[in-house]
Amino acid sequence: MDFEILHLTKHDDQRGYLVEFLKKDELSGANKNFGQIYFVTFNGKNIIRGNHYHLQTEEWFGVVFGSVSVVLEDINTKERKSFTLHYSETEFVRLRIGKGIAHAFKSLTDAAILLDYTNKQYDSDYTDRHKYMLIEK
Fold it and tell me: Mapping DSSP to helix (H, G, I), strand (E, B) and coil, where does residue 24 land?
């Protein structure tokens, strides 16, 4: 299944912290072109986002506040993974989701925020977003 979890360094000082979320050197091929950055918010516990996959788009997620449950499924092999991502004072975790991997997130806290980078800019004429139910509402 095409996904990767990476533990990133938090550079802390008296002002706060800085995380190098994603660097051009970590991208290859078509991913070297800039796509789009989103903040995805969850305005309550048990809010569900996602329940879709992309055929041409890869995404990189990081939790900047709260906790979320994650479900991934390869649309071809039906292999499924479930895990939890949390905001942490000591480390930052980045999740990369490849093409053809259905994904859904469910907030486990009263509020949560994800940082989301996609390698393709949103196009309302072709969204590359295909519904795929992983977590029932």
Answer: helix
44 within some domain: yes
pLDDT in tens, 112-132: 999 999 999 888 888 899 999
Q: What SS3 class is residue 43?
A: coil
Residue 33 pLDDT > 90:
no
Q: Is residue 137 part of a domain?
A: no
Q: How far is residue 20 from each of residues 24, 53, 57, measured CA to CA in Å?
A: 11, 26, 21
What distance in Å separates the CA atoms of residue 1 and residue 80, rounded to the nearest whole number? 8
The number of domains in the chain is: 1
Domain holding 92, by residue range, is 3-22+33-131
Question: What's the CA gap between 81 and 88, in Å, rounded?
Answer: 22
* Better-predicted residue by pLDDT, 123 or 48: 48
How many angstroms separate the CA atoms of 31 and 110, rounded?
34
User: Over 90: is that where the pLDDT of 15 sits?
Assistant: no
Task: Identify the CATH number of the domain in which residue 87 sits.
Answer: 2.60.120.10
